[in-house]
Write a structure and sequence with these properties.
The chain contains eight helices and seven strands; from the N terminus they run H-H-H-H-H-E-H-E-E-E-H-E-H-E-E. By secondary structure, the chain is an alpha/beta fold. It is an enzyme of class 2 (transferase).
């Protein structure tokens, strides 16, 4: 009997499938199909925009759109000016010891203050420190000088005299960092004591008392002060009362230069033999506050 056709077809199909499998296995290795190629790598991402670096090698913040570099400079200038006004107010409204402690804990703030101070001074047509330097040059180069509140030590850098530069904070080893009411200078050891715009603390009389201590008899006391602080018509102290108080400390007024519209210069000389008055009526000097511009 012939097998049913359905069974034969199924058999053929099975044999055909089996044959294919067998043939695939029988192919020599040289004729085998190559393995499928690896998928191509994805296209590279577009390069990230490089961020500018500042001088220290750190990435600088990229300005936001719409803010120009000049605008950023203006913002930085305003921020710096704000810091200076805050620090300036601190110096005028606290004692010397408090100011010394404050800047000792935050020495960077002193640099900020002096940067703002120099910017303010650049607007003055004449600098009082230059007048004092020229005055020293016209006198005795052998005089020893104490520069109270020396700032960038301009006096010491521009005269041949021996100068003790004194200020609250300094990274310059030649500058003595201390409260100006208590310096390490010896009694009667200097010929000239200078206060160039530096009678700032609420206890400024103690600075002058310290200057009196370290000055030799006949020594010079040179003071440059902001004019508005000594303008009684604008809330400042009376310059005559200011001079009288220093005279009671043991000095005589040699001359006063009030021709400059920004500051007044006083030249006092310590008396040979004198004692400071037990009670001196020191006038309150008006704080010099810079307005926001």
């Amino acid at each position: 009997m012939e097998p049913p056709q359905g069974s034969a077809a199924g058999g053929r199909k099975r044999r055909r499938r089996g044959g294919v499998r067998n043939r695939r296995k029988a192919l020599p290795s040289s004729q085998q199909a190559p393995p499928p190629e690896a998928a191509p790598p994805p296209p590279p991402l577009p390069p990230a925009k490089r961020r500018r670096k500042d001088g220290a090698g750190q990435a600088a913040a990229t300005p936001k759109r719409g803010i120009t570099s000049s605008k950023l400079d203006q913002m930085r200038a305003r921020l710096s000016a704000g810091h200076f006004r805050m620090l300036n107010q601190t110096l005028y409204t606290c004692s010397g010891q408090d100011a010394f402690d404050y800047f000792k804990e935050n020495p960077n703030y002193f640099d900020v203050y002096h940067a703002g101070y120099q910017e303010q001074m650049s607007r003055w047509p004449e600098q009082p420190v230059n007048i004092i330097i020229n005055w020293l040059k016209s006198h005795n180069a052998s005089w020893t000088v104490a520069d109270f509140g020396c700032g960038n030590a301009a006096v010491a850098k521009n005269v041949d005299n021996k100068v003790f530069s004194i200020d609250l904070v300094s990274d310059d080893p030649s500058v003595i960092a201390c409260d100006m009411a208590h310096t390490p200078l010896k009694t009667s050891s200097v010929d000239v004591a200078i206060f160039c715009l530096s009678l700032m603390g609420t206890n400024y009389p103690s600075y002058l008392e310290e200057a009196n201590r370290v000055l030799k008899p006949s020594g010079w006391l040179v003071i440059a002060e902001v004019r508005s602080r000594l303008d009684p018509n604008n809330g400042g102290a009376d310059p005559e009362k200011f001079s009288k108080a220093i005279i009671q400390l043991g000095f005589s007024l040699v001359s006063k230069d009030a021709k400059n519209k920004m500051f007044i210069l006083f030249y006092f000389r310590k008396k040979e033999k004198s004692k400071a008055a037990k009670s001196i009526d020191w006038p309150q000097l008006k704080p010099c506050m810079y307005k926001r511009r």
